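Structure ticket #2291
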Amino acid sequence: MQLKNILLLFFVLAAGYLKAQDTTDLMSMLESEVIGDSKSKTNYATATFKTTRLINGHTVENVGPGVLDFKISHRFGKVNNGSYDLFGLDNATMRMGLDYGITRYLMVGIGRSTFEKTYDAFFKLKILRQSTGKRNMPITLSYVPTIALKTLKFEDPTRKNYYTSRLYYTHQLIIGRKFSEGTSIQIMPTYVHRNLVKLAAESNELFAIGIGGRQKLTKRISLNVEYYYQVPGYKLTGTTNSLSLGFDIETGGHVFQLHFTNSRGMNERTFVSETTGEWSKGDIYFGFNISRVFTIGKRKTKVK
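Resolution: structure written out below.
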């Protein structure tokens, strides 16, 4: 082979090697930029649960700022009432509520239940938010205090009754995590205070631990489970732990919730501490939650 051909071959190979090196270096630089960019941003978990309510109780979700959520919850009678009451459909209790988002982390709500003619009010503060990237937070943490006013007539009008005897207070932490696109779980340590007790031996305080979860079954349907365990020593006489099963069905941007529960009441005081139904005896209430969302005020438009 002539010298000029050898030199030509050498330059061709060298040029190919340098070109490959440039491409490798360029890809490495792009990869570093992508990794570095993802680490410089905070990616928050979204849609841990589909609504602000799991079944009876709250989830870690809030309504957005400036959004008003009008929510109607129904509980029919016991399924074991049989065909005479159309398996409970002849009897119903209802709660109507308004939830409003003040900021991304704070919402407030009020409601009124036909069951025991109870008014309730609460706020929900999101303290921590699950995220990855620049800020790594494994959970979402919310705090929900609730006050309830029972307006039924006093059982014994001959005694001296106080207005404060109608008041009940609940404090709840909600610790939630979205494990995957279809699986979310939350734990709910709960404290309930009653100003008035029926028996002298009963405590004014009650502690319970709730656990709830959501598992997507299809693109638009998910299975929800919710359970509240009353801590021994504080459980009221004749009560049981609340257990509820339900389905979320997404329809046109809204979520329709169907469920079965042994709790008749729809605020924390009633379903956490005063549930009396037993699943084994058929003391099951069928119910549903529906909501209509309104945006208050003018929408902000982006200036191009």
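Closing remark: The longest helix spans residues 3-40.
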